[in-house]
User: Fold these one by one.
Assistant:
Number 1:
Amino acid sequence: MHDPVPDSGPTSHSFISQRLRLNYVDWGNAEAPPLLLLHGGRDHCRSWDWTARALRRDWHIIAPDWRGHGDSAWAPDGSYDINTHLYDLAQLIHQLKLAPVTIVAHSMGGAIALRYTGLYPETVRKLVAIEGLGPSPKMLAERQAKDFGARLREWIDAKRAAAARSPRRYPTLEDAFERMKTENAYLTEDQARHLTIHGASRNEDGSWSWKFDNYLNLPWIADMPAEQVAQLWSRITCPTLLMYGEKSWASNPLEDGRAKHFRDARVVTFADAGHWLHHDQFDRFLAELRAFL
């Protein structure tokens, strides 16, 4: 069973990166070794509460909200490329003097953590990436096959549409909760409610909207070539655990060949789990995580 959310939660703090005030929560136990929990796109740091509660006695746990997410500031220009997030992570670790640090990261957070660890391998003790390798080689090839000018025009059109769109408003928090449940059928009622409470904020008219910036829905138009990303993966020296949900859209690196780029990585697949496998199969996730850590 998924444990209830802890009554005594973390404390909120902030740091400055690239002129933005970014939020992170600290679960205390500062004398213990540091453990960073990094959420994925359009999520928030409090989605790690169950994991943090289970590990807080043995670790000094810190969980940030990425820019444009949770209680962190939104980028004024609506720009959220992965290198900007990479700098934010480097600043958090640098400013809080966390190195050497252990990292557990999901999805977009995993992609950022993997690149950071390749850049600064000496600063990371162990790394867990939950579906963090990004689009599969097949998806990347299909994207590259499309005319770059056409992709750039689509990005401009998408950004213009985001600028004209107001955040969706839900009349009540219960309506937002119902939306959360439809997004992931594996979530329990308690999980969905907790994620909604911490993922939504109240508007002046009393309605509720998700905290994340609409501009996060834009397609990534420019990124370093896949070969350079793979080079960063190959520079990772710490033990690495790659987790994948059997029923997720994500491509398993054992099957698509990407696992070969890692020096010391093991891939674990979770049955009856989707992209949020750390929620879908929490007990098994926690067991695998404890054993690895």
Number 2:
Amino acid sequence: MVYHVSVDNSGRAIAMKLCQEFGSMRLAEIGGIFGIGSESGVTKTISRFSKRLVKEEEIRESYNILCLDLTP
């Protein structure tokens, strides 16, 4: 029997997007930090998260608060 376990990696996706936006990091650098072996994997994760930002108000609010904290 195989069980499907849903894991919420919102925090990880937020961190990756923040690295890209505020850290001006390249995809390969982000992948290295998060243990993702390909740039396409990083792109997919950030892309999925960006779609969630549009759809999910709670995620968007959390992300916006972090962005405000990081903005000088």
Number 3:
Amino acid sequence: MPETQTAIPSRQPSPTSADDTILPFEVKALDLRGRVVRLGPSVDKILRAHDYPAPVAKLLGEAVVLAVLLGTSLKFEGRFILQTQGDGPVRMLVVDYTTPGKIRACARFDAGRVAAAIAEGKTDVGGLLGRGHLAMTIDQGPDMNRYQGLVALDGKSFEDAAHEYFLRSEQIPTRIRLAVGEELSAAAGGAQHRWRAGGLLVQFLPKAQERARQPDLDPGDAPPGQAIHVVPEDDAWVEGRSLVETVEDIELLDPSLSTERLAYRLFHERGVRVFPDTAVSAECSCSRDNVANMLKSFSQDDRDDMVENGSITVTCEFCNSTYVFEPDKLASEAPPTEPLN
């Protein structure tokens, strides 16, 4: 008996979509799988927790989108950590994504150098991060080994760095688009600014692996005149990545363009199948209880050195929540359920 195939229902793309969601999709005719992420209140909460200069906030927002796009590929409970270290005005960015959709992030920067970079118009990735590296770490828990991939940062955008990572580490043809911007709206008391972000990831995953072959990596020390290894790209992937490259920032940010409509706009001629979306939220793992336990792990002499004006104050680098403790009551204090802000 021949196998019967269940027909996949078709419908028009939804005209609306919720912010802070990740929509997986598939273009079977081109052997493509991908995800669209739209961030509204979650990324705004992260970027407004600190008084970041606008270029730093935008850079951190791009890192958040990239971490969400990559972290949602985890098929297990764990964390995806994206971190940069460089010699530029922005010394470090850290984004922590915990499955199935919790995100937190922060940036460390030199305010004077950032101001100088803004004055000189050097607010791209190269101008702010300088030379360094981008580390992507997968943490499956205390009983499992961590996996880490490194990509050099030498003026490349986050998109370029991600493409190089997939070329060198995963060897999967991949294209990524990232966008971050401020939305201006009228509100009582004047105009209101809110950060928005969006991203698109598309990968070529044919059943026949030879169709996804890519050129050998440049060894860096090949003798002069050495022929460069060239592998013709599969026509399906050429079409797929070419469509991704047409996506404009406004399409990833515009709340009036739903994620389904964006996917349909790109791939309707070939047919695109969407799957249930996943919610994303900005949530920090800090708590008064956790901070108290951390302080208790220090020696009494160390805790005494932390006392200022009769109390110990700890501020979370991620969410900027502040916790204040009386030293002589630290051991017995019953922590409140909410942090002090």
Number 4:
Amino acid sequence: MQQSYTGMLNNNKPAFIFDMDGVLTDNMRFHADSWVELFKDFGLQGLDAERYLVETAGMKGHDVLRYFLDPNISEAEAARLTELKDFLYRVKSRDLIKPMPGLRDFLDAADVHEIRLAIGTGAGPRNIDYVLDLLNLTDTFQAIVNPFHVLQGKPHPDIFLRAAELLDTDPSACIVFEDALPGVEAARRAGMKCVAVTTTNSAEAFSDFDHIVKIIDDFTELSVDALCRNLYTKQPVTLL
């Protein structure tokens, strides 16, 4: 008989909060290529997909534009260019979006254990609907938080803290699943443990973070039961 962890963690309900791009699906390269394509029109030198992925993957579009293009870009212009980039991304990726290996079984196991599920992503609403529809996960998550719901995007903790609030659980009872360094840092600032996914960064890139409990290539390497037991420890314990 499967064990339910609901209400067993100091009366807090355990929750899993997933970044979307690079975690639910291995699609960050499509985003990176689309940004590089867009920035070519502005004569930006020295930007390739690898630099984007290392320095700004996981940030909301407005922050990417401020970082690479113009720190004083207007909200209207940033919104226009972000939507143009997102159109390029959807054109490039439409037939290629697939769930991460092991994802569906992992989500099913979380449901059996009565784990609350949320998405905390830097993607906008249109891209969220696009990906979840292609992955057939539209009705899977109890809460979805995007940058328009908070004041500051990753690496600030706002997105993950808002997700925990919507799930009615304490940040200490949450595990975040992230592929990007700004997102991993956001989880740390939120007081949440983290599973790092190596779609965007190498395992070595996560070595400086002490709140990471496991580094994975995909969800076939995870046990819901082991992750929940890890929440009971006062300090993160790497699940090797």
